[in-house]
Each structure stands twice: as C-alpha cells, then as structure tokens.
Specification:
Layout: H1 2-14, E1 19-20, H2 23-28, E2 42-44, H3 49-61, E3 65-69, E4 89-93, E5 100-104, E6 109-113, H4 118-126, E7 130-132, H5 145-151, H6 158-161, E8 168-174, E9 180-182, E10 215-225, E11 229-237, H7 240-253, E12 258-264, E13 276-283, H8 286-300, E14 304-307, H9 310-317, E15 333-336, E16 339-342, H10 346-359, H11 361-367, E17 370-378, E18 381-390, H12 396-400, H13 415-435, H14 455-468
Parallel strand pairs: 2-4, 3-4
Antiparallel strand pairs: 1-2, 5-6, 6-10, 7-10, 8-9, 8-10, 11-13, 11-14, 12-13, 12-17, 15-18, 16-18, 17-18
Helix pairs in contact: 1-3, 10-13
Amino acid sequence: MEAEKVIADLESILGSEHVHTDGKTREQFAEDLFFSGPSPLAVIAPASREETCDAIRACTKAGVALLPRGGGLSYTAGYVQSKKNAVPAIVLDTRRLDRILDVNPDNMTVTVESGCTWETMMAATAEHGMRATMFGPTTGRYSTVGGSLSNNCMFFGSAKNGTAADSVLGLEVVSANGAIIATGSGATKNSIPFFRNNGPDLTGPFLNDAGALGVKVSATLRLEKIPKGQASASFTFASFETLIPAIRAVGQSGLASECLGVGPAPLGDEPVSNPTMHVVCEGWTQDIADAHLAAIVELVGSEGSAVDPVAPDFIRGNPFSFVQSPLDAKGRKQIWTHGVFPLSRVTDAYDGFMTVLNDHFADMIALGIDASLSFACAGHAMMVEPVLYWHGKASALHHNGMAHVEDPAPEGADAERRDQRVRVIREAFATMMDDLGAAHMQYGRFYSYASATKSETISLVRDLKRSVDPNNLINPGVLGL
C-alpha cells in the first residue's frame, strides 16, 4: 500500500519516534480550536531543514498531501482539511525546528527556525538589548514564528510597527519538490539576509499564505533596541461609539506601541460594563515615553475617563504568560472572528458586527452565548474582533494545546446546539466583512480569499501556486486554492 510505503520512508528519514501513526495523535492533529477534519495518515516532526526537504520530497513523490502546522492555535482550519474535499495527507509539525540561528546586533537582525516560539526568540534577542519590531502575539509562549508568518499576527509593538509580516526581511521556504527557496538579500550569492527589497519582493508571496506555497524553515526579522522608557494608561468610555473615535485618533498619531479597546457587546436591554481602552507608549528616555502618553491623553479628551492601568501593566509585565488556555476564565470555549479595516471603516465594521449579533440575540440568550468586542491598532489599520463565549464541546487542543486544563467546565446538554449556533454567527460575520472589503490574518479555510479577491489577482496567485506546487499537495484547499 502506498501509504505504508511513504510512512516507512518517513521513518527512515526522521526516525520512527518522530513519525506518529497512533489514533490519538492523528485525531488531535485533525482539529484546531474550532474546526475538525479527517485524521491524517501520520504526524511527522523533522528537526532540520535537510530532514524537512527529504520528508516533503517523500510525501509529494508518493502523491500524499503535506499540511504544515506550527503551534496549532488556528481557528480557521489552517491545517485542517474539510471532510468533503479531503485527500490523503500527513501533518508536518514544525516545532522541533526551533533553533535560534543568528542574532546580529550590528545588522539589527535575528534569524530563527520556523518552529521557534516568539518567547524563545524574545529571550535570545533581549540578551543583546534588542527585540523584533513586532515582538509577538499574546500567545507567544506557544505560537511559532513560522506559523505566525504563514497566517500573520499582531500585538506587541503593533500600533507603531504593524504586524508580524511587516518585520520580515527574508525567508527560507521548502517547495513541493523539496528545494529551498530563499528570499530577500539572503537569496543573493555572497550575501546574507539583511534587506528585504532586493529586486522583486519574493518574501511577500510566502507571507500570509497559510502555508499554501511551501513550508517555511527559517525567517529573518528586523530588530530594534528595547526602549528605556515606558508609560501606560487605561480609559473607560460611556460606549463603543465614544471609544472608536478615540482609538482611531491614537492609531493615526503613531504615538503608542500597543493600543487595545475592549468591552462586552451591548446587546438587548441588559446593562453591561463600559468599554475600556489600554495604551502603552515607549521612548528612548522616560521623558519621551511620558510625553507621548500625555499627547494621547490630550487626544482622548473628555470622552475617556482615566483609570488605573492595571491591564496594560500586567500584560507588559507578563507578555507571554498571562494567556494560558484557549478556554476563558470560566472554562468556556471562546472564538475570535476578526477583520482588518482601514481607519475610515471602523465604525461601519462595528455597526456590521452589532447587526449580526442582534440578529442572533434571542438564540444567544437562550443558549447562553456571550459576546465581547475588541479593537486593536495595527499601524495605519484597525483590527475589529468580536469574541463569542459558550459551554461547547471542547477538543483535546482546548485542554492540552497550551497549559493543561485540569478541570474544564462541563459542556452541558446543549453543547452541540451552541457549537452550531456559533458556526452560523461566524459565517454571518464573514459575509458582512466581505461586503465591507475587510482584510484578514489567518485566512485558513474559513475566511474568503479566493472568492473575495479580484479575478486578475487570484489568477496570478493560482499561477504562482502551480509553479511551486504543480500537483497541489502543499496544504491543498487553504485560501480556496
């Protein structure tokens, strides 16, 4: 049988202990935080670029699809095939590719293997008084750099420096035939990775691609010196309608390193707590950081009332450890459905999300589904993200994908009904965002990429996919490809 042969070949390449064919592992790797699909033939874990190249070559030669996976915290079926269109596949777990390859303070660059976590990279660069310009998502203890660059992410430093993809100078990507493609100045003979825009920007196509164009084995990111000054503030607002102009003004100012607005969705007639905004400013000196914060206070004006900045201080003090589980504090499942919008459309996005939530309000009340909204500055853009919370059927990834959850909350009799209602609400969110022309991080198989992209552009993307993966064996179906 061809499947047995390819597994035997992979065992000879990686060692049998790194080729997992047991049912429990295969089932766990067929799930993310929201979707589930058919179990893969096996889960493999290479430890070097050479092993990765050989493993990919063995799979594609046998006609077996390869599904790249980083930390596994997808909630858009990024590495989960649909049951309807599934093909025989093997999941490639990149987490053993976790080395720091180079920290270069002179060139202000860091090069890491794709399975390295953001926390590990931050620790290595901090020894030199430096950090990546966007130095990780809040899940950086578990999220890998390669997975984040395949899907994009944001948070620490994002208000000033944008997303993870904006910090990349070059990549090494393994194509379907097992060849390593280098991008940026690292692709130039006798050069090193230090400059991205060296000829056509070949780094760009491999970012945010959900792993459709190849398997990342290393990435080089820009570094900056860690500022000496830091100042934070929190504000409470009467409503999201008064918060939105304030957070938009902060985003336009470029003065903050992080800026997050969050609060419960105002549904029905039930009173809810007021939304809050949390800001961190930095500067080469403390005086500069304080001056930036003072300017933000002036921008916020009388609409926002200053409160003790407990939240931003705690998050900055525990950047990768304050999020320990994909379940919320009550043990409930939670799911994020975001859109990235130009600043001029943030109010439209808020109105659209609230329309969807109000359309489903009666069912949400009946099933005990709660909702919140968050707004986060990402350079010149804004991520708007409703979060749904409910007692549903939790997967092994919910319990063990991050810190182990000893006593998860009971699912309850209506767990499947709640799960189904959340699916319906998320689909309505996605349709609304398509109408507003939203961009997305972590497209996966959930958000519309192929159908929402202009025909000439998606035609070029399909041509590129065929050139590096002619048999469509690297994460087939992701991005709608």
